[in-house]
Write a structure and sequence with these properties.
Ribosomal_bS18_CS; 4 helices; 30s Ribosomal Protein S18; plastid; mainly alpha
Length: 101
Amino acid sequence: MYKAKRPFLKFKRSFRRRLPPIQSRDRIDYRNLSLISRFISEQGKILSRRVNRLTLKQQRLITIAIKQARILSSLPFLNNEKQFERAASTARTAGYRTKKK
């Protein structure tokens, strides 16, 4: 059998070495807010594993720690700044919807 070789196909390798997002000395815990806050988006959502570059086990531990911190009120469930901006914008348009007497 004939195997076709692809001489022009080259794999791209990144020369810049990235540090892993979680060091071995870092403890994944609900009390470590500086570590946990790196894995939450601006809107307050937990970022995916692909974005975080974490292993499956690390992502599970981060998710559990974030949820525990939210329940204990260390972290907010939502980012309140966006909520206030939305409330202010709806207040301006609410005046146009009222009936004139």
